[in-house]
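Per reviewer request, we include the raw input and output of the structure prediction for the construct analysed in the revised manuscript.
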Amino acid sequence: MPLTSCMFNVAIYASVSEQIGALSLGDVASGAAPERFPFPATEHTAVIIKRHLMEANELSVADMVEVIGVLGSKEHLPVDDYAPSEDAAAFPTIHAIIVRKISDHGHPDLDHDGPKEADVDQVRQSTQQTREALIDYLSAPLYGDKLAAELVLLHLLARIHTRSNGLVLGKFSLNLKEPTVRSAAFPILSQALGSILPKFYALPLSLKTLNDHFFFPRGGEGLSSGILQVTKGTSLLLDETAMEEGTLNDKGVKNVKAIADLSVYQTLGYVFPFNNLDISTDVSLLIVSSGSSLIPVDCSLKLKHIVGEPTIQEVAESRLVEFRKYLSVLRMAEYKFSEEMAQEIETEFMQQRKEASAKGTPLMTPNELAFNVGLARLVSLSRGDLTLTREAWTHAKDLAAQIRSRSNGSSQ
Protein backbone atom coordinates (compact mmCIF):
# COMPACT_ATOMS: atom_id res chain seq x y z
CA MET A 1 0.00 0.00 0.00
CA PRO A 2 1.20 3.57 -0.62
CA LEU A 3 2.55 5.57 2.26
CA THR A 4 1.46 9.00 3.43
CA SER A 5 3.49 11.21 5.69
CA CYS A 6 2.65 13.87 8.19
CA MET A 7 4.61 15.88 10.70
CA PHE A 8 4.01 15.70 14.43
CA ASN A 9 5.44 18.02 17.07
CA VAL A 10 5.29 15.71 20.03
CA ALA A 11 6.63 17.64 22.97
CA ILE A 12 3.30 19.28 23.92
CA TYR A 13 2.57 16.18 25.98
CA ALA A 14 5.31 15.12 28.36
CA SER A 15 4.36 11.45 28.33
CA VAL A 16 4.67 11.26 24.54
CA SER A 17 7.82 13.37 24.53
CA GLU A 18 9.49 11.06 27.04
CA GLN A 19 8.57 7.97 25.04
CA ILE A 20 9.93 9.55 21.87
CA GLY A 21 13.03 10.59 23.79
CA ALA A 22 13.65 6.96 24.58
CA LEU A 23 14.10 6.43 20.85
CA SER A 24 17.14 8.74 20.84
CA LEU A 25 15.44 11.70 19.22
CA GLY A 26 16.92 14.13 21.72
CA ASP A 27 19.47 15.40 19.22
CA VAL A 28 16.76 17.16 17.19
CA ALA A 29 17.25 20.92 17.30
CA SER A 30 14.94 22.65 19.74
CA GLY A 31 12.36 24.76 18.00
CA ALA A 32 12.76 22.95 14.69
CA ALA A 33 9.86 23.58 12.29
CA PRO A 34 8.27 26.20 14.54
CA GLU A 35 5.58 26.80 11.91
CA ARG A 36 4.21 23.36 12.82
CA PHE A 37 4.11 23.98 16.57
CA PRO A 38 1.30 26.06 18.14
CA PHE A 39 3.20 27.73 20.97
CA PRO A 40 5.85 30.33 20.12
CA ALA A 41 9.38 30.06 21.55
CA THR A 42 8.61 26.73 23.25
CA GLU A 43 10.90 23.70 23.48
CA HIS A 44 9.60 20.87 21.30
CA THR A 45 10.66 17.87 19.29
CA ALA A 46 9.54 17.44 15.68
CA VAL A 47 9.29 14.11 13.88
CA ILE A 48 7.90 12.91 10.56
CA ILE A 49 5.38 10.06 10.80
CA LYS A 50 5.00 7.82 7.76
CA ARG A 51 1.96 5.56 7.71
CA HIS A 52 -0.14 3.43 5.37
CA LEU A 53 -3.29 5.06 4.02
CA MET A 54 -6.22 4.96 6.40
CA GLU A 55 -9.87 5.84 6.18
CA ALA A 56 -10.29 9.53 5.44
CA ASN A 57 -12.27 10.15 8.65
CA GLU A 58 -9.98 8.21 10.96
CA LEU A 59 -7.73 11.12 11.92
CA SER A 60 -8.40 14.83 12.00
CA VAL A 61 -6.34 17.92 12.70
CA ALA A 62 -5.39 18.39 16.36
CA ASP A 63 -6.17 14.77 17.23
CA MET A 64 -4.03 13.25 19.96
CA VAL A 65 -2.57 9.94 18.82
CA GLU A 66 -0.31 7.12 19.93
CA VAL A 67 2.18 5.89 17.34
CA ILE A 68 4.00 2.56 17.48
CA GLY A 69 6.55 2.11 14.73
CA VAL A 70 10.13 1.79 13.60
CA LEU A 71 12.59 4.65 13.94
CA GLY A 72 14.12 5.53 10.59
CA SER A 73 16.75 7.93 9.35
CA LYS A 74 16.34 11.68 9.27
CA GLU A 75 14.53 13.20 6.34
CA HIS A 76 13.51 16.62 5.07
CA LEU A 77 9.87 17.61 5.06
CA PRO A 78 8.02 16.36 1.96
CA VAL A 79 8.40 18.64 -1.05
CA ASP A 80 4.67 19.23 -1.32
CA ASP A 81 4.74 20.83 2.14
CA TYR A 82 7.93 22.87 2.25
CA ALA A 83 10.56 22.37 -0.45
CA PRO A 84 13.78 21.60 1.43
CA SER A 85 16.84 23.71 0.84
CA GLU A 86 20.42 22.60 1.38
CA ASP A 87 20.50 24.04 4.88
CA ALA A 88 16.96 22.97 5.85
CA ALA A 89 16.62 20.87 9.00
CA ALA A 90 16.13 17.14 8.67
CA PHE A 91 13.83 15.31 11.08
CA PRO A 92 13.75 11.78 12.47
CA THR A 93 11.23 9.56 10.73
CA ILE A 94 8.98 6.98 12.36
CA HIS A 95 7.51 4.32 10.06
CA ALA A 96 4.19 3.72 11.79
CA ILE A 97 2.91 0.23 12.42
CA ILE A 98 0.01 1.29 14.64
CA VAL A 99 -1.58 4.73 14.85
CA ARG A 100 -4.53 5.13 17.17
CA LYS A 101 -6.43 8.08 18.54
CA ILE A 102 -6.40 8.85 22.24
CA SER A 103 -9.45 10.18 24.04
CA ASP A 104 -9.21 13.87 24.92
CA HIS A 105 -8.77 13.27 28.67
CA GLY A 106 -4.97 13.34 28.27
CA HIS A 107 -4.40 11.39 31.49
CA PRO A 108 -1.52 8.89 31.04
CA ASP A 109 -2.96 6.35 33.48
CA LEU A 110 -6.40 6.10 31.84
CA ASP A 111 -7.40 3.94 28.90
CA HIS A 112 -6.97 5.40 25.42
CA ASP A 113 -10.75 5.38 24.94
CA GLY A 114 -11.46 7.14 28.21
CA PRO A 115 -12.09 6.20 31.84
CA LYS A 116 -13.67 2.83 32.55
CA GLU A 117 -16.43 2.07 35.05
CA ALA A 118 -13.83 0.98 37.61
CA ASP A 119 -12.08 4.36 37.31
CA VAL A 120 -15.34 6.19 37.93
CA ASP A 121 -16.20 3.97 40.91
CA GLN A 122 -12.76 4.53 42.42
CA VAL A 123 -12.97 8.32 42.13
CA ARG A 124 -16.53 8.44 43.49
CA GLN A 125 -15.42 6.75 46.72
CA SER A 126 -13.69 9.93 47.89
CA THR A 127 -15.39 12.59 45.76
CA GLN A 128 -16.56 14.87 48.56
CA GLN A 129 -13.17 15.05 50.29
CA THR A 130 -11.34 15.55 46.97
CA ARG A 131 -13.81 18.23 45.91
CA GLU A 132 -13.35 20.21 49.11
CA ALA A 133 -9.55 19.86 49.01
CA LEU A 134 -9.43 20.94 45.37
CA ILE A 135 -11.55 24.03 46.05
CA ASP A 136 -9.14 24.94 48.86
CA TYR A 137 -6.19 24.40 46.52
CA LEU A 138 -7.72 26.61 43.81
CA SER A 139 -8.84 29.33 46.19
CA ALA A 140 -5.28 30.09 47.36
CA PRO A 141 -4.22 31.69 44.03
CA LEU A 142 -7.57 33.54 43.94
CA TYR A 143 -7.16 35.60 47.12
CA GLY A 144 -8.99 32.90 49.13
CA ASP A 145 -12.19 33.37 47.11
CA LYS A 146 -14.05 30.05 47.52
CA LEU A 147 -16.85 30.99 45.10
CA ALA A 148 -14.33 31.75 42.35
CA ALA A 149 -12.45 28.53 43.14
CA GLU A 150 -15.62 26.45 42.88
CA LEU A 151 -16.46 28.02 39.53
CA VAL A 152 -12.94 27.25 38.28
CA LEU A 153 -13.44 23.65 39.41
CA LEU A 154 -16.73 23.42 37.49
CA HIS A 155 -15.04 25.06 34.50
CA LEU A 156 -12.36 22.34 34.53
CA LEU A 157 -15.04 19.62 34.49
CA ALA A 158 -16.94 21.10 31.53
CA ARG A 159 -16.90 19.51 28.09
CA ILE A 160 -19.20 19.69 25.08
CA HIS A 161 -21.82 16.94 25.12
CA THR A 162 -24.23 18.17 22.43
CA ARG A 163 -23.99 20.08 19.16
CA SER A 164 -27.25 20.74 17.32
CA ASN A 165 -28.21 23.43 14.80
CA GLY A 166 -25.45 25.75 15.93
CA LEU A 167 -26.22 25.17 19.62
CA VAL A 168 -23.21 24.09 21.69
CA LEU A 169 -24.04 22.56 25.07
CA GLY A 170 -21.61 21.71 27.83
CA LYS A 171 -18.99 24.44 27.42
CA PHE A 172 -18.28 26.80 30.33
CA SER A 173 -15.89 29.60 29.44
CA LEU A 174 -15.09 31.70 32.50
CA ASN A 175 -13.87 35.25 33.11
CA LEU A 176 -12.41 36.22 36.49
CA LYS A 177 -12.26 39.99 36.96
CA GLU A 178 -9.63 41.50 39.21
CA PRO A 179 -9.92 45.04 40.63
CA THR A 180 -6.25 45.64 39.80
CA VAL A 181 -4.64 46.91 36.60
CA ARG A 182 -2.19 43.99 36.37
CA SER A 183 -3.18 40.53 37.56
CA ALA A 184 -1.33 39.20 40.58
CA ALA A 185 -3.40 36.00 40.44
CA PHE A 186 -2.47 34.94 36.88
CA PRO A 187 1.08 33.59 37.47
CA ILE A 188 0.07 31.78 40.68
CA LEU A 189 -3.12 30.38 39.15
CA SER A 190 -1.07 29.26 36.15
CA GLN A 191 1.26 27.36 38.45
CA ALA A 192 -1.64 25.72 40.29
CA LEU A 193 -3.50 24.66 37.13
CA GLY A 194 -0.30 23.43 35.52
CA SER A 195 0.22 21.08 38.46
CA ILE A 196 -3.14 19.31 38.06
CA LEU A 197 -3.97 19.41 34.33
CA PRO A 198 -2.38 17.09 31.73
CA LYS A 199 -2.91 19.57 28.87
CA PHE A 200 -2.58 23.21 29.87
CA TYR A 201 -1.14 26.42 28.45
CA ALA A 202 -1.04 29.91 29.98
CA LEU A 203 -0.60 33.01 27.81
CA PRO A 204 -0.41 36.73 28.68
CA LEU A 205 -2.44 38.53 26.01
CA SER A 206 -0.04 41.40 25.40
CA LEU A 207 -0.52 43.69 22.44
CA LYS A 208 2.73 42.37 20.97
CA THR A 209 1.59 38.75 21.26
CA LEU A 210 -1.72 39.51 19.55
CA ASN A 211 -0.10 41.55 16.79
CA ASP A 212 2.95 39.37 16.12
CA HIS A 213 1.69 35.77 16.39
CA PHE A 214 -1.04 33.80 14.67
CA PHE A 215 -3.72 32.29 16.92
CA PHE A 216 -5.35 30.40 14.03
CA PRO A 217 -3.81 27.91 11.55
CA ARG A 218 -3.03 28.96 7.99
CA GLY A 219 -2.58 26.75 4.98
CA GLY A 220 -0.66 27.17 1.76
CA GLU A 221 1.64 24.47 0.53
CA GLY A 222 1.59 23.18 4.10
CA LEU A 223 -0.37 23.91 7.28
CA SER A 224 1.19 26.35 9.74
CA SER A 225 -0.05 26.09 13.32
CA GLY A 226 -1.76 28.75 15.40
CA ILE A 227 -1.70 29.11 19.18
CA LEU A 228 -5.31 27.91 19.48
CA GLN A 229 -4.64 24.75 17.43
CA VAL A 230 -4.56 22.37 20.38
CA THR A 231 -6.21 19.03 21.05
CA LYS A 232 -9.66 18.71 22.56
CA GLY A 233 -9.54 18.73 26.33
CA THR A 234 -6.78 21.34 26.51
CA SER A 235 -7.18 24.13 29.08
CA LEU A 236 -6.10 27.66 28.13
CA LEU A 237 -5.52 30.44 30.67
CA LEU A 238 -5.36 33.92 29.14
CA ASP A 239 -4.32 37.13 30.90
CA GLU A 240 -5.95 40.24 29.44
CA THR A 241 -4.38 42.48 32.07
CA ALA A 242 -1.09 42.09 30.19
CA MET A 243 -2.50 44.13 27.30
CA GLU A 244 -0.86 47.54 26.98
CA GLU A 245 -2.26 50.68 25.39
CA GLY A 246 -1.92 50.67 21.63
CA THR A 247 -3.57 49.55 18.43
CA LEU A 248 -4.37 46.07 17.23
CA ASN A 249 -3.22 45.47 13.69
CA ASP A 250 -5.17 43.35 11.21
CA LYS A 251 -3.61 40.14 12.55
CA GLY A 252 -4.41 41.15 16.13
CA VAL A 253 -8.07 41.82 15.29
CA LYS A 254 -8.34 38.42 13.60
CA ASN A 255 -6.70 36.79 16.62
CA VAL A 256 -9.23 38.33 19.01
CA LYS A 257 -12.04 37.09 16.77
CA ALA A 258 -10.50 33.61 16.77
CA ILE A 259 -10.52 33.58 20.59
CA ALA A 260 -14.13 34.84 20.63
CA ASP A 261 -15.25 32.15 18.18
CA LEU A 262 -13.54 29.54 20.34
CA SER A 263 -15.38 30.80 23.43
CA VAL A 264 -18.83 31.12 21.84
CA TYR A 265 -18.93 28.39 19.18
CA GLN A 266 -16.01 26.14 20.13
CA THR A 267 -14.76 26.26 16.55
CA LEU A 268 -11.39 27.26 15.15
CA GLY A 269 -11.04 28.70 11.68
CA TYR A 270 -8.38 27.19 9.40
CA VAL A 271 -7.47 29.84 6.84
CA PHE A 272 -6.51 28.76 3.33
CA PRO A 273 -5.80 30.89 0.23
CA PHE A 274 -9.19 30.30 -1.39
CA ASN A 275 -11.46 29.17 1.45
CA ASN A 276 -11.72 28.92 5.22
CA LEU A 277 -12.76 25.89 7.25
CA ASP A 278 -14.30 26.04 10.74
CA ILE A 279 -13.24 22.94 12.68
CA SER A 280 -15.14 21.94 15.83
CA THR A 281 -13.07 21.68 18.97
CA ASP A 282 -13.51 21.51 22.74
CA VAL A 283 -11.03 23.74 24.57
CA SER A 284 -11.53 25.19 28.06
CA LEU A 285 -11.06 28.96 28.13
CA LEU A 286 -10.35 30.79 31.40
CA ILE A 287 -9.68 34.53 31.13
CA VAL A 288 -8.30 36.86 33.79
CA SER A 289 -9.04 40.56 33.22
CA SER A 290 -9.11 43.84 35.14
CA GLY A 291 -12.63 44.61 33.91
CA SER A 292 -15.08 42.95 31.59
CA SER A 293 -13.27 40.72 29.12
CA LEU A 294 -12.95 41.52 25.43
CA ILE A 295 -14.09 37.95 24.84
CA PRO A 296 -17.74 36.90 25.33
CA VAL A 297 -17.89 34.16 27.95
CA ASP A 298 -20.48 31.92 29.55
CA CYS A 299 -19.83 33.23 33.06
CA SER A 300 -17.95 36.14 34.62
CA LEU A 301 -17.22 36.88 38.25
CA LYS A 302 -15.56 39.68 40.20
CA LEU A 303 -12.87 38.27 42.44
CA LYS A 304 -13.33 38.95 46.14
CA HIS A 305 -10.17 39.49 48.19
CA ILE A 306 -10.46 37.32 51.29
CA VAL A 307 -6.69 37.26 51.87
CA GLY A 308 -4.08 39.81 50.87
CA GLU A 309 -2.07 38.10 48.15
CA PRO A 310 -2.45 35.06 45.90
CA THR A 311 -0.46 32.06 47.09
CA ILE A 312 0.17 28.47 46.05
CA GLN A 313 -0.91 25.85 48.58
CA GLU A 314 1.74 23.25 49.32
CA VAL A 315 0.22 19.78 49.00
CA ALA A 316 1.67 16.28 48.78
CA GLU A 317 2.28 14.75 45.36
CA SER A 318 -0.23 12.02 46.23
CA ARG A 319 -2.90 14.71 46.61
CA LEU A 320 -2.02 16.21 43.22
CA VAL A 321 -2.32 12.73 41.69
CA GLU A 322 -5.75 12.47 43.29
CA PHE A 323 -6.77 15.88 41.85
CA ARG A 324 -5.62 14.91 38.35
CA LYS A 325 -7.57 11.67 38.28
CA TYR A 326 -10.67 13.27 39.80
CA LEU A 327 -10.75 15.94 37.06
CA SER A 328 -9.92 13.60 34.17
CA VAL A 329 -12.39 10.88 35.17
CA LEU A 330 -15.40 13.00 36.15
CA ARG A 331 -15.01 15.28 33.14
CA MET A 332 -15.38 12.27 30.83
CA ALA A 333 -17.94 10.36 32.93
CA GLU A 334 -21.25 9.52 31.28
CA TYR A 335 -23.99 11.78 32.63
CA LYS A 336 -27.74 11.31 32.22
CA PHE A 337 -30.48 13.87 32.84
CA SER A 338 -33.46 12.17 34.49
CA GLU A 339 -36.98 12.75 33.14
CA GLU A 340 -38.21 13.27 36.68
CA MET A 341 -35.85 16.19 37.34
CA ALA A 342 -36.49 17.65 33.89
CA GLN A 343 -40.22 17.75 34.61
CA GLU A 344 -39.63 19.21 38.06
CA ILE A 345 -37.41 21.99 36.68
CA GLU A 346 -39.92 22.80 33.93
CA THR A 347 -42.76 23.07 36.45
CA GLU A 348 -40.60 25.24 38.73
CA PHE A 349 -39.69 27.52 35.82
CA MET A 350 -43.29 28.07 34.78
CA GLN A 351 -44.33 28.69 38.40
CA GLN A 352 -41.54 31.24 38.90
CA ARG A 353 -42.58 33.16 35.79
CA LYS A 354 -46.20 33.10 36.85
CA GLU A 355 -45.41 34.44 40.33
CA ALA A 356 -42.98 37.05 38.99
CA SER A 357 -45.57 38.27 36.49
CA ALA A 358 -48.15 38.65 39.24
CA LYS A 359 -45.70 40.61 41.43
CA GLY A 360 -44.30 42.69 38.60
CA THR A 361 -40.77 41.41 39.22
CA PRO A 362 -38.33 40.28 36.49
CA LEU A 363 -39.12 36.94 34.90
CA MET A 364 -36.48 34.26 34.60
CA THR A 365 -35.43 33.99 30.96
CA PRO A 366 -34.88 30.75 29.05
CA ASN A 367 -31.17 31.65 28.84
CA GLU A 368 -30.97 31.97 32.64
CA LEU A 369 -32.70 28.60 32.99
CA ALA A 370 -30.27 27.01 30.54
CA PHE A 371 -27.34 28.48 32.48
CA ASN A 372 -28.68 27.03 35.75
CA VAL A 373 -29.22 23.62 34.16
CA GLY A 374 -25.68 23.59 32.75
CA LEU A 375 -24.29 24.67 36.10
CA ALA A 376 -26.28 21.93 37.85
CA ARG A 377 -24.80 19.30 35.54
CA LEU A 378 -21.29 20.38 36.52
CA VAL A 379 -22.19 20.55 40.21
CA SER A 380 -23.52 16.97 40.01
CA LEU A 381 -20.36 15.71 38.33
CA SER A 382 -18.15 17.51 40.84
CA ARG A 383 -19.97 15.59 43.58
CA GLY A 384 -19.59 12.28 41.76
CA ASP A 385 -23.28 12.10 40.81
CA LEU A 386 -23.92 10.83 37.29
CA THR A 387 -27.43 12.22 37.16
CA LEU A 388 -28.99 15.47 38.42
CA THR A 389 -30.05 15.46 42.06
CA ARG A 390 -32.30 17.95 43.83
CA GLU A 391 -29.38 18.90 46.08
CA ALA A 392 -27.21 19.72 43.06
CA TRP A 393 -30.05 21.69 41.44
CA THR A 394 -30.58 23.73 44.61
CA HIS A 395 -26.83 24.37 44.93
CA ALA A 396 -26.58 25.42 41.27
CA LYS A 397 -29.36 27.96 41.74
CA ASP A 398 -27.59 29.29 44.82
CA LEU A 399 -24.34 29.62 42.87
CA ALA A 400 -26.15 31.52 40.10
CA ALA A 401 -27.64 33.88 42.68
CA GLN A 402 -24.19 34.49 44.22
CA ILE A 403 -22.75 35.24 40.77
CA ARG A 404 -25.51 37.79 40.09
CA SER A 405 -25.06 39.32 43.52
CA ARG A 406 -21.30 39.60 43.07
CA SER A 407 -21.82 41.23 39.66
CA ASN A 408 -24.14 43.86 41.14
CA GLY A 409 -22.02 44.53 44.21
CA SER A 410 -18.43 45.29 45.13
CA SER A 411 -15.54 42.84 44.84
CA GLN A 412 -13.91 44.21 47.96
